[in-house]
Amino acid sequence: MKNHKMPDPSLTPLGEEQSGKLQKTFPHHDSVELLVSSPIRRALYTTLIGFESDVQRGLKVIALPDVQETSDHPCDTGSNPDKLEEEFGKEGRVDLSLVHEGWNVKEGRYAPTPKAIEARARTARQWLKKRPEKEIVLVSHGGFLHYLTQDWTFPNIFWGTGWANTEFRSYRFVEDQETQSSGDDDNASLAETDESKRLRSGKEKPLTDTEKVELLESTQKAWEEKAKAKTDVSQGS
Predict the structure, then answer these.
(1) Over the stretch 73-111, which tens digit does the pLDDT of each residue have?
(2) Exposure of 108 by Cβ count < 10 A (0-12 exposed, 13-18 middle, 19+ buried)?
(3) Could you say which DSSP state residue 61 is in?
(4) Pairing of strands 136-139, 34-37
(5) What is the pLDDT of residue 153?
(6) Global pTM?
(7) Do residues 196 and 170 make contact, with C-beta atoms less than 8 angstroms apart?
(8) How far is CA 30 from CA 23, 121, 137, in A?
(9) Are the CB atoms for 94 and 63 separated by under 8 Å?
(10) Which of 141, 170, 184, 229 could anchor a disulfide with 196, C-beta 3.0 to 4.6 Å?
(11) How far is CA 206 from the centre of its chain?
């Protein structure tokens, strides 16, 4: 998206086309039990178009604030609940009961900081893991999905993500030995399925936990330096 100053924009014509292609190419529609989406408008429309057949057979889209995008740019800041209710709630296709006042204020829980984003990503994983449904579709944003999946391979610091538009991957929950041994709350860790990895990138050797932490730290540092450079240029202009 070129215009980061546009508040909570809808999908572009290209985005609508990509979402329509997703509906045709996604191979697991018959097994989907739950649809979850970021309440950002472009994500909701991606879900409604890309999983139209699932909505038509009775699945409602649950809008989950914790999976909104990471930055505080206007384009990544959601609309007020009343506007979303007017646009999406009346038709009954989107469940907005979790979208509360203040969900679109980028402070505290939703601050654009690594610590805050990591915390809500963990909360989102725990929420998903506790759901009774086993086959869940989640439509979110490229930047946030690195935090959610804790997968930091191939992030592009210029686009802010290693995920392409309407790209789909599949993950499963795995036992986290580290949190179990320490007695901490469940981290609800995810691991990409072998099928998903084969479809998108072949048979790369999985990263170790230490390598994942190192990649996370280096990627965040690169993003922060890029953001600082943009700020300096803006202040100097």
Answers:
(1) 999 999 999 999 999 998 899 999 999 999 999 999 999
(2) exposed
(3) E
(4) parallel
(5) 72
(6) 0.82
(7) yes
(8) 12, 27, 12
(9) yes
(10) 170
(11) 22
